[in-house]
Structures are given as structure tokens and as C-alpha cells.
Design a protein that fits this description.
This is Haloacid dehalogenase-like hydrolase domain-containing protein 3. InterPro entries: HAD-like_hydrolase_domain (IPR051828), HAD-like_sf (IPR036412), HAD-SF_hydro_IA (IPR006439), HAD-SF_hydro_IA_REG-2-like (IPR011949), HAD-SF_hydro_IA_REG-2-like_cap (IPR044924), HAD_sf (IPR023214). Belongs to the HAD-like hydrolase superfamily. The chain is about 45% helix and about 15% strand. By secondary structure, it is α/β, with parallel strands linked by helices. It folds into 2 domains: about 5-15 and about 110-235, HAD superfamily/HAD-like (Rossmann fold, 3-Layer(aba) Sandwich), CATH 3.40.50.1000; about 25-105, DNA polymerase, domain 1, CATH 1.10.150.720. A 6-stranded parallel sheet has the order 5-4-1-6-7-8. A two-stranded antiparallel sheet has the order 2-3. Strand 4 (about 130-135), helix 7 and strand 5 form a beta-alpha-beta unit. Helix 4 (about 70-85) packs across helix 5. The longest helix is centred in the first third of the chain and has 18 residues, at about 40-55.
Length: about 240
């Protein structure tokens, strides 16, 4: 039977858009522009550590503690460089500011293969669409720069919602924005826990976008798995 879907919600990072290069490469290039030489590998490593520590201390981009996205990220960037041995505050402040703005733009992000065509197909079929993403306030800009924003009725970030996936409350907000019941909606994302399982726990349909070579989660029936985004139309029309 054809699914009676009215709303499709989408994860953003690594589902619709992805970074053009590893974080360490972008950070090293910005440092070079300020006359500072650091190995990209060292920065990638220290970024993971700094990002993890900041996320534990100030979850969801510091929303509960009143931090702006920019303050939250400035601390991550500065700590990343400090752990890699760069300590000059004036330079770190400049690097952090430049990187924050760079990561708003299509310079650092690219659209995943098949995303544009699939979203267009979904619009033509009359689906309402929204983004549900654990992201900070820059997501609207990134989607606009990548020429995807116009496909969506709403963009709901964890920073705006006040809850991060897999918390059911961010999905409940999305359903309210879409004006539909859970069983009339399907979510598409690349995380088994935050996307696939979280949406199903609420009674939504969901599809796990899993590029070739990613791990196999046992509980996912093959008809819920998208090897590419272009597989979605066939699964929806089943």
C-alpha cells in the first residue's frame, strides 16, 4: 500500500549537505592566512577533543546557558588551536571569527549527490517538507547558499527548538509546524539513533540514508534503507 504521507522531514549534515574537506584542512588554511602554521591532522585531532568537551559542558550550542552560536563556536576554535600549540589570543580571536563566517557559506559545504533532484521530486508530488537538524543558527544561511532552502516549509534546528535529536520534543515541534499526525510524516537521516530510531519512537515513518560501506544496523528492514537519496521516490510510492 502507498504510504499516506503528507510531511517529509530531513536531517541536514551528511544527509543533504556535507563539508567539502575535513575540518582540520579548513582550520589549517585559515591559520595559514594569518601566518600561523599548524598541521591539519593535529587540528582534526584537537578539534574532536575541543568539540566533545564543549558539547558536554554546554550542550546544544549553549542554548540552555544563553550562549550565542558564535560564542559557542569561538570557544571550540580557540581551544582547538590551543591544544595544537597556538596560544596568541589576538590571532585566535581573528581565526575564530573568520571560520565562523566561512562555515556559513557554500565555500565549505556541498550538496550530496541526488539531494536536489530528490527534493524537487518530493515538491512536485505535493509533500510538505521541513528540516530537523542538530545544528546552530547558521543552517538557514547554509541551505540558502547551497540553493536548497526554497524546498522547505520550515527549518528547525536543535538550537532554536531547545531540544536535540533523539529527544522526541524536536520531532513533536516539527509535526506541529507541519500540521500533521506522526503517521502522516516520514523522516530521512543518516544516524540510526538520532534520526531513524528517534522518529520511529514517535510513530513517524523513517528512512535511514546509509552511503555504501557504512555499518549495518540489524534492526533496519531493507525497505527503510536508502543507499542513495535517489532511492527515496521508489520507497515512498511502494
Amino acid at each position: 500500500a502507498m504510504l499516506r504521507l503528507r510531511l517529509l522531514t530531513w536531517d541536514a549534515k551528511d544527509t543533504l549537505v556535507r563539508l567539502r574537506e575535513p575540518v582540520g584542512e579548513s582550520y589549517a588554511a585559515e591559520a595559514r592566512a594569518q601566518g600561523v602554521r599548524v598541521q591539519p591532522g593535529a587540528l582534526s585531532h584537537s578539534f574532536r577533543e575541543a568539540y566533545g568537551a564543549q558539547s558536554r559542558r554546554f550542550p546544544n550550542y549553549g542554548r540552555g546557558q544563553g550562549l550565542s552560536s558564535q560564542q559557542w563556536w569561538a570557544d571550540v576554535v580557540k581551544q582547538t588551536f590551543r591544544l595544537a600549540g597556538v596560544h596568541e589570543d589576538r590571532v585566535l580571536t581573528l581565526i575564530a571569527e573568520n571560520l565562523y563566517h566561512d562555515f556559513c557559506s557554500a565555500r565549505n559545504w556541498e550538496v550530496l549527490p541526488g539531494a536536489g533532484e530528490t527534493l524537487r521530486w518530493c515538491r512536485q508530488r505535493g509533500f510538505h517538507m521541513g528540516v530537523v537538524s542538530n545544528f546552530d543558527s547558521r543552517l538557514e544561511d547554509i541551505l540558502s547558499q547551497c540553493n536548497l532552502r526554497h524546498h522547505f516549509d520550515f527549518v528547525l534546528t536543535s538550537k532554536d527548538a531547545g531540544f536535540a535529536k533523539p529527544d522526541r520534543r524536536i520531532f513533536e515541534q516539527a509535526l506541529r509546524l507541519g500540521g500533521v499526525l506522526p503517521e502522516q510524516a516520514a523522516h530521512v537521516g543518516d544516524s540510526y539513533t538520532r534520526d531513524y530510531r528517534a522518529a520511529r519512537a514517535l510513530g513517524m515513518h523513517s528512512f535511514l540514508f546509509r552511503a555504501a560501506g557504512q555499518g549495518e544496523e540489524p534492526e533496519v528492514p531493507p525497505e527503510h534503507v536508502l543507499p542513495t537519496l535517489s532511492h527515496l521516490p521508489a520507497l515512498i510510492e511502494k
